[in-house]
Automatic annotation (TrEMBL):
Location of this chain's protein in the cell: Membrane
Protein name, per record: MFS transporter
Family in the record: Belongs to the major facilitator superfamily. Sugar transporter (TC 2.A.1.1) family.
Primary location group: membrane
Length: 510
């Protein structure tokens, strides 16, 4: 009798148990049983989103600010083309290292811990770079900044996507990602403001110094977010997951009043990060996901970061044709840099427009369609830049600007935003940070390569030849996306753990 009752109680308890994502997905019902379309985001969910968005903002701010600072740094440290490449690529090399070495650790030590560590590293090295006495210290500091920003690629995505309903995931993750474009545009604006106040070579120090206090404020605020309950369950800490989920879903009136979590199949992450890499490649289901997440990201970063960082440099060369000041003087360098930054600001605002449209369309149209369409559109924009001289010297500047604006719009509508989104969605929870970090690292390998090679090639073969190569890489990105397509729009992230990833791809949807 007692045994039967215990069995009934156990069965009832089991039936009431839900997964973390099931609790997050819950929506209210009207009295007649009609479901409400969505539940209001909680204060904690919004806090996580804003603080993750801030990390993306700093990424765009610092990287694009470096593009404006390059002419000043070149004059201050007497850089040649190789020196240009070193300064511009060292942050991207840090991104490469950070995404793998630090970002992947979020699978073992938790999303929140790495979320904090990256901001500690970023704040510290912002101080160092603004005070750098020589080129060696500057390079080391820029590398450290890159490590922090690289760690943010997987952790920011995962701490958002594992805390919100699947139906909101695409636009919320891309909404945070859009702050990279806002940061890029702000970096150009701040740099212009600094250049107008400090009309000398020291202006680059103040550009980086402006970001120190905001970075420290974000660091403090990140202490007050919760750990991912999905990760805690996968790590075997169900009670901590229950407490974390209750804080995440705290609302008025209180709901749910009691949380009973069902455990997922899976094991806590053990072994080295590189062992996880080998498992991703060896496993048939995750190999396809790894190729889709990594190769298009690599191809799009070749063009996105090359064009983004060196837009002021490309425009500087065009503005320089009409400059009347004495070449080589500090006044000439500063004035030329201001003109180039103004041109970059005109071009870079299309980054914001592109990612805003991506937010609206990603969940409706799908990640794969937008990525392919964006790659093709970016190639067209670059091809316009290639053809600019054929329109005559008087129109060359206008045509180049139009081509770069189209490129920025299409790349943020498609591959720049969708590769980031896809990389955090196609891997199971226990390998999600490692997989997303690996994809980001491979992407930054492309960015780092082009950042180092771009100024050398620009000086030796010219703008048109270089942009022609980027046209080819963009079209290749569209082909790879098509061949390895996996559509993740609307997929519950817990379902990614439970079924073959290849089945989530719908060839007919394209």
């Amino acid at each position: 009798m007692n045994t039967d009752n215990s069995s009934d109680i156990s069965k009832t308890s089991s039936e009431k148990s839900k997964t973390v994502q099931q609790y997050i997905e819950e929506t209210p019902l009207w009295a007649d049983g009609t479901p409400v379309g969505s539940a209001q985001m909680t204060a904690m969910q919004w806090r996580i989103w804003w603080l993750a968005s801030a990390g993306k903002f700093f990424g765009g701010l610092i990287i694009f600010m470096t593009g404006v600072a390059l002419p000043l740094l070149a004059k201050r440290f007497d850089l040649d083309a190789v020196g240009y490449g070193l300064v511009s690529s060292v942050t991207l090399f840090g991104l490469f290292v950070g995404a793998t070495a630090l970002g992947g650790l979020a699978d073992r030590y938790g999303r929140k811990r790495m979320f904090l560590i990256e901001m500690v590293v970023l704040t510290l090295f912002l101080v160092v770079v603004s005070l750098a006495p020589n080129l060696i210290v500057l390079l080391l500091a820029l590398f450290g900044i890159g490590v922090a920003l690289g760690c943010d690629y997987p952790t920011a995505h995962l701490i958002i996507s594992e805390s919100i309903p699947s139906r909101h995931r695409g636009r919320m993750v891309l909404g945070a990602f859009s702050f990279q474009a806002v940061g890029a545009f702000s970096g150009i604006g701040i740099s212009l403001g600094v250049l107008t106040v400090f009309e000398d070579l020291s202006a680059w120090r103040w550009m980086y110094a402006v970001a120190i206090l905001p970075a420290f404020a974000i660091l403090v605020a990140r202490f007050f977010v919760v750990e991912s309950a999905q990760w805690l369950v996968k790590s075997g800490n169900v009670e901590h997951a229950r407490l974390s989920l209750s804080r995440l879903l705290k609302r008025e009136p209180v709901y749910p009043t009691d949380i009973s979590l069902s455990e997922h199949d899976g094991k806590p992450v053990t072994g080295s990060t590189f062992a996880s890499f080998r498992e991703l490649i060896r496993n048939k289901e995750t190999r396809r996901a790894t190729i889709l997440a990594s190769v298009p990201w690599f191809l799009q970063d070749i063009s996105t970061f090359g064009v983004g960082i060196f837009t002021p440099l490309v425009l500087s060369g065009l503005f320089d044709k009409t400059t009347t000041q004495h070449k080589g003087s500090i006044a000439h360098v500063v004035a030329d840099d201001i003109q180039a930054a103004q041109g970059a600001a005109l071009v870079d605002w299309m980054l914001v427009v592109g990612v805003l449209l991506a937010i609206l369309l990603s969940d409706r149209v799908g990640r794969i369609k937008l990525q392919i369409f964006g790659f093709i559109g970016a190639a067209i924009g670059l091809f316009i830049g290639v053809m600019a001289p054929s329109f005559g010297a008087n129109n060359e500047m206008i045509v180049v600007l139009c081509g770069l604006m189209l490129f920025n719009f299409m790349t943020n509508l498609g591959p720049n935003s969708q590769t980031y989104l896809i990389a955090g969605e196609v891997f199971p929870t226990e390998h999600r940070a490692v997989g997303a970090g690996l994809a980001a690292s491979i992407g930054k390998l492309g960015a780092m390569s082009t950042a180092f090679v771009f100024p050398i090639f620009l000086a030796s073969v010219g703008r048109e030849a270089l942009l022609s190569v980027l046209v080819v890489t963009s079209l290749l990105g569209a082909v790879v996306t098509w061949l390895y397509r996996i559509e993740t729009a609307g997929i519950n992230l817990e379902e990614v753990d439970l079924k073959e990833l290849e089945q989530t791809s719908d060839p007919q949807a394209l």
